[in-house]
Design brief:
alpha+beta
């Protein structure tokens, strides 16, 4: 078998490097890749620059065969090592595609191309350690394998599939519905697929150009025309795919939100605002300063407990020291089952003599029931036990939201990549995940971390209500449901915070300018600002309320929660239904699951939304709006440059 022997010649190698560098720089100056292009689009332009320079080198210079082989091998090895060595197609990312026959075909072709490229990579790398291992027969066998009709058919099949807009729209719709599985926004899923297909086509194109070059070097023909035709068709294929997908990707949903877990676990998947408004039994005699029973329960729409008449049932329960709202009469006499002492509930259930039961009566009452009877005073006035809502701050009432800003470490080029609610020392914080921003919208995986929240208590010195934290109460218990989006695509999210607008808790996001190509924040101390939705329910584009009707405890639902809110709405924390839960629980719950995307990306927006199912209290949760990569899907060359090549 013929074996090529290559001997190093320092002077010749130096000259060749200088010549090739000059040629490459000349081509780059006229065929520079597009600014702001995605990584894969940028690499396609880089390789077309490279293969154009190599062909010019092969055709215009009278250089010996050994030097030509070394230059082609070295150039491809360097390009692969710097750009493609870690890129491989992972089919488990796209289980959704198995729903479609075209999707299955596409994956088969991508896997096959990836396998061919693996062999090509080993062939090119082998020469780095020992140039004597370059065998002409092995190379010619490889070129025959790559340039046969089967590879071209794969390219044509991929081109045909990726240009079917109907398939793309179906994928987008299914990706949106399958967010629980993909952990990606619909746009992110389709853009990831576009990138992987583009990488596969680039690998195939690289192998084909390499093959034509080697046939040219081994004097099997000139093949310059074949190379040019293939390059032109490659660029046309890129344009067709981008034209077909750009509109679909642009309008695809970019939201990432967390689905319900298989099992709800307090403190792990959800947490609660506790004892904000809670069902409470109080006798009329204790709801006025005079200790009379001259009115009825409905009279006391706003009141408070003034005492404990003759140490009746009031002496057996924890007194409501706050305000009482919306009192009503249910029945005169009842049996009350008190909750455990360490519970945030007051009652497990209340059973009236007329048969009505508030709450779930299941099994025996652990602490034993108490018989509670209303009574008559002087035959004229009925001293009724009323069912009211108690709004009381206390050690068992976790109703506080952090107002301090949480920002990424911009001095380390870190940006926000994820969100989650955490409850620390009875205060709810919106915590951020941060990651280091890299060129062209990438995030350094190893840099991801959850930034610690401020560790303080409401009773700490120099900690102030309405400055450091917000306290929910009857009159200010609303939270705004918004999507905060960047307007300028050159900005990403670097911070979040809550503020109070009127009586509403309102989300703000910090936006910072950055350079897509370099991945660097642009003087973030200066080029950053806070953005929010300033609309209220009475001014501007008026907000609408998401109303909870007779809500039950959210985790009792067997159905998965669905998003029930939209931008520019709000919801009020309230009590659960009287009959279903004796109004003992505050809803919505707070979803505390991590909301991140896979892979992590910079964010163009964040939001707060409400999700639920049926007549259950549901959950408040954060959402991400992933960076919009649509403007960065670009052809390798501008139109005028393309016309010179085609």
């Amino acid at each position: 078998m013929f074996r090529i022997k290559i001997k190093e010649m320092l002077s010749t190698t130096t000259i060749l490097i200088i010549v090739f560098t000059i040629l490459t720089n000349q081509i780059k100056s006229t065929l520079a890749g597009p600014k702001g292009a995605s990584i894969v689009d940028h690499l396609r332009a880089e390789y077309i620059n490279l293969d154009t320079a190599l062909w010019k080198y092969l055709n215009e210079r009278q250089i010996d065969k050994k030097s030509q082989i070394r230059k082609v091998f070295d150039s491809h090895r360097q390009f692969i090592k710097e750009n493609l060595s870690l890129i491989s197609f992972k089919s488990d990312k796209y289980l959704l595609l198995n729903r479609y026959y075209e999707g299955q075909e596409l994956q088969r072709d991508l896997i096959h191309l990836d396998g061919e490229f693996g062999y090509f990579k080993s062939l090119v790398y082998k020469s780095a350690s020992n140039e004597d291992l370059i065998e002409e027969r092995a190379i010619l066998d490889f070129t025959e394998e790559i340039l046969n009709d089967s590879v071209k058919k794969m390219f044509d099949n991929i081109d045909n599939i990726m240009n079917k807009q109907k398939l793309s729209y179906r994928i987008v719709l299914d990706a949106r519905d399958q967010i629980c599985v993909t952990n990606q926004s619909a746009q992110q899923f389709l853009y990831s697929l576009y990138s992987d297909v583009a990488y596969a086509e680039l690998k195939g194109y690289t192998m084909m150009q390499f093959s034509w070059m080697m046939l040219r070097i081994y004097e099997k023909g000139n093949f310059t025309e074949e190379s040019n035709l293939m390059r032109n068709e490659f660029i046309k294929r890129i344009d067709r795919t981008q034209d077909a997908l750009r509109g679909v990707i642009k309008h695809a949903d970019r939201s990432v939100w967390k689905c319900d877990p298989t099992k709800h676990l307090k403190g792990q998947t959800y947490d609660e605002v506790t004892r904000l408004l809670q069902g409470y039994i109080e006798n009329e005699v204790d709801m006025n300063e005079d200790g009379t029973c001259r009115e009825n329960c409905a009279y006391y729409q706003v009141s408070k407990s003034h005492g404990c008449y003759q140490d009746l049932y009031c002496a057996k329960q924890q007194r409501c020291t706050g305000k009482l709202y919306n009192c009503q009469y249910v029945d005169s006499d009842m049996w009350i089952c008190p909750s455990a002492l360490n519970s945030s509930r007051r009652y497990d259930y209340i059973e009236y003599e007329n048969g009505r039961v508030l709450g779930e009566k299941s099994g025996s009452c652990v602490r034993g029931t108490s018989k509670v009877d209303s009574w008559w005073r002087w035959l004229f006035w009925h001293c009724s036990y009323c069912f009211c809502l108690c709004d009381e701050q206390g050690l068992k009432s976790d109703r506080y939201f952090n107002l301090r800003s949480t920002e990424s470490d911009i001095h380390k080029n870190m940006v926000v990549t994820g969100l989650r609610f955490v409850k620390v020392k009875r205060i709810f914080h919106l915590q951020v995940q941060q990651g280091e921003l890299l060129p062209r919208g990438n995030i350094k995986q190893e840099s991801l971390e959850w930034k610690p929240v401020d560790d303080y208590q409401i009773f700490d010195r120099n900690v102030k209500s309405k400055v450091d934290y917000h306290t929910l109460a009857w009159e200010n218990r609303a939270i705004d449901l918004d999507d905060i989006n960047v307007v300028d695509p050159t900005h990403v999210i670097t911070g979040i915070r809550f503020r109070v607008v009127g009586t509403h808790l309102n989300l703000e996001a910090k936006l910072s300018e950055y350079n897509f190509e370099t991945g660097l924040l642009v003087e973030p101390e200066i080029n950053s600002f806070w953005q929010s939705n300033d609309n209220t329910d009475v001014t501007g584009d008026k907000r609408t309320q998401v109303i909870l009707r007779s809500p039950d405890i959210p985790i009792r639902s067997i159905a998965r929660s669905q998003v029930k809110s939209k931008h520019n709405q709000y919801i009020e924390f309230t009590n659960t239904d009287m009959d279903k839960d004796a109004a003992q629980t505050t809803v919505p719950f707070i979803d505390i699951q991590e909301v991140t995307s896979s892979p992590p990306v910079p964010l163009s927006g964040v939001g707060i939304y409400y999700k639920g199912s049926g007549q259950y209290g549901g959950f408040i949760a954060p959402k991400l709006i992933t960076y919009d990569f649509t403007p960065h899907i670009q052809s390798p060359f501008k139109a005028e440059e393309r016309s010179r090549m085609i």
